[in-house]
């Protein structure tokens, strides 16, 4: 990373802004997972990302906004046009059973009673967005999507949250998706 003296003055080009924003979100995600939401200070995020706190506030927002951005980043599959319901379920399971997503889930739950805004940010950017993604493959049926989402995560995800199981291999995820879809058919 260039020193402050080596940096150009003025606004960076759009591609540099996007890379900087992605770096901020990646650092925030890593710290939220490693030390928890409250312990991950904006100072630490700014320092590790090589930006100022003002840049974080200007580009992304406060800590709940950073959590929302981190959760949105985990749910990047939402930008993928799934071929069918099975593909949508596979994309969701692959994202949500990953260590990064499980860590963010733990961080959000740990502070849920202290700050309802954090819970809302997490839920809206994560589970609710995933359910709407599924609903698009269920003729808009949000109730069925909610049930499918619950079944898709279920006990295997709870075991992940409790650190009882490691991140599953793709073959295990595929078998899980198949079992869930067979059960609801």
TrEMBL record:
It comes from the Bacteria. Residues 18-78 form the HTH tetR-type domain. Residues 41-60 bind DNA. It comes from Microbacterium paludicola. Pfam families: TetR_C_7 (PF14246), TetR_N (PF00440). This is AcrR family transcriptional regulator. Keywords: DNA-binding. InterPro entries: Homeodomain-like_sf, HTH-type_TetR-like_transc_reg, HTH_TetR, TetR_C_Proteobacteria.
